[in-house]
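User: Working on a comparison across species. This one is Prephenate dehydratase from Ureibacillus terrenus. Can you predict its structure so I can line it up against the others?
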Amino acid sequence: MTNNEWKYRVAYLGPEASFSYLATRELFPNEWNIAYRTIPECIDAVTNEVVDFAVVPLENAIEGSVPLTIDYLFHEADLYIVGEIKLKIQQHLMVNKAQKDNWEKIEGIYSHPHALAQCHKYLFYRFSHVPLHQTSSTAQAAKMVAENPDKCIAAIGNATSAEKYGLVIVEKNIHDFHFNHTRFVVLSKYNTRLPIENSDGQPKTMLMLTLPHDDAGALHRVLSVFAWRRLNLSKIESRPLKTGLGNYFFIIDVLADENEPMMKWAFEELNALGCTVKSLGTYYTYNASE
Ligand SMILES: O=C(O)C(=O)Cc1ccccc1
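Assistant: Here's the predicted structure for Prephenate dehydratase from Ureibacillus terrenus:
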């Protein structure tokens, strides 16, 4: 991505060695990557043009969508997805070197809520009596454990964070399901596309859609717009509109380019049906998983 005069500034959920950092480094190895404390701060940095891109987690294979990312994109931002990366996620239990012989007596386990949830069974069967504490990221948990050598506590995160913050991994691969991948998306203020090498060449378009109010069969009609045009959907999900119980918006991923004629006509028909549709743009996926 580097050209000679300009280094892109890329926001990620820090600190260094988080999974978001690993995803960012895969896609932007030579750029100027900047750590932020929360996902909304990463998104705001793009909106306010403090950075050129943000890399944020969107969906995990075990835990499902990252609601904070999806809701913030719908309610608070007006950005495009310009690329995607799929990263294999391996969660390990790690402690401070000073506590390495006491690790079975840990008094607290710290991590990002998604990481804690990905290890739910392990934690339930192995450490059911130990309080779990949420941190802003897995790397933040590792950093905190490193800064508190006197406390008998553990973090859950990746091997890079153990190395970076000088922790000892005491149990490897504690996530409950072997297939554990996360989709991270690259956000931009502009509807461009990252030139992703080694993508599978399959364009994908993410739509955010609201149905006309109280209209029986509305979702069926929306799906038929895609179905008879043979536009393949890879995801559909509803999220609360936050205007009252029972009010939702839909996130729909279509395996097609938004500029294809079939897609243009689909947008027209959706509008004619009374839907509000917003395309977050077409992008390609980089597969960093093994
Ligand atoms: O906490 C991190 O390291 C993140 O980047 C967020 C996250 C957490 C768990 C799985 C994937 C991403």
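For your comparison, note: The first helix runs from residue 19 to 27.

User: Helpful, thanks.
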